[in-house]
Automatic annotation (TrEMBL):
Annotated Pfam families: Amidase
GO molecular function, one term: catalytic activity
SUPFAM superfamilies: Amidase signature (AS) enzymes
Alphabetical list of PANTHER family matching this protein: AMIDASE AMID-RELATED, TRANSAMIDASE
Species of origin: Brevirhabdus pacifica
Domain of life: Bacteria
Protein name per the record: Amidase
Entry-linked Gene3D superfamilies: Amidase signature (AS) domain (3.90.1300.10)
Amino acid sequence: MSETWRNMSASDLGREIGAGRIDPRELTEAFLDAIDAHEFGPRIYARTMPERARAEAEAAANRARDGLRRGLLDGVPISWKDLFDTAGVATESGSRLLAGRTPDADAEVLVNATSAGTVALGKTHMTELAFSGVGLNLATQTPPNINDPALAPGGSSSGAAASVAHGLAAAGIGSDTGGSVRVPSAWNDLVGLKTSSGRLSNRGVVDLCPRFDTVGPLCRTVEDAAEILAVLEGRRAADLAGADLSGVRLMVLETLALDALEDQPAQGFEQAIATLEAAGAVIERRKMPQVAAAEALSGVLYSTEAYAVWGETIEGDPGVMYPPTLERFRAGANFSGVEYIRAWRELDRLREEWLAETAGFDAVIAPTVAIMPPDIARLTADPEYFKARNMLTLRNTRIGNLMNSAGLTLPTGVPSTGIMFLAPSGGEERLLRLGTAAEKALRRG
């Protein structure tokens, strides 16, 4: 039975708990045992929190017995990326620079999730300080891709994705600054939600680029994404009933997002488009020059902020970092304050144009990632290959961050490929309803 539980959605597990057919204590033990026994457990989890998990499961079991459950996910075990503060447990953000860093309090989103009754299993591996898209981390661990452990898992929420895909958590909580939820979700055949900037609290979350950092779930279904979003912010979940694609207007983004597509992502995306169109969606293809203009600003925007946050810490012991990651951070020292402010002013202008020109569509769609997961051994041996693959990996997802969008990725049916939906900031509920309808069509198709 525990093997079946490990492959169920978080929402289905919650329903089984509510019906009295699953005891949260047994469910939590099943996941903890699986983590300990799994060949890739140490590559996925930086550390587990068994005492906390068992105490939370015990409390959830008592509430279930007394008819006092706090919501659908009360008693459901989830994993947390190792940049969310956990009281009394090390939170190191995948970096030797933060070795032994142990906060005194939980991150605000973890406080909310705990209040909703979820069970915190442990902390998952991630890329160094969250500044990489392929998921490689030579300082700690590189988690395995679900379709081939020799391939990169996607990052920076690499362990979060692997924990769900390998059945070692019902859902994972990650962060997305340039694609760090959506890339590993796509490469591990999961659903990933990038929330709007500011929608969820970043208090107690280790920073990378605060103006771009967002929190979001990696999970099995769109329903799970909606329920977890609600848990993380302490609200009711979006109503997904009756979601339908009839008459939904979707814009295929042709600028940049379709360039240099590898065969499988192109195949998955075109198959998905055909399926959505057959289900009633209206598809229109458009070029958006704002995207290319925004991409040209990304170097100064991301690296300047990242180095401003981490430069002093990094320069205290730069030798512990993977050299290409160190180089990427240090690039931020080359830009002046004038250049940085000018870039933000220009991006604000481009965002306004994007919003105006996409206003007639329910969502903008694109392949989540242009390439397939690269080989870990080659990434490790060839720094230039790592840099080139990393930038191409993040190119499409970063559009959502640059354009201040909410984003959702769904599996296309072709392994390790995803279709990405972008909606205006604050549009998560609309996006989740659209995603529910798209998910149904894609699973049928």
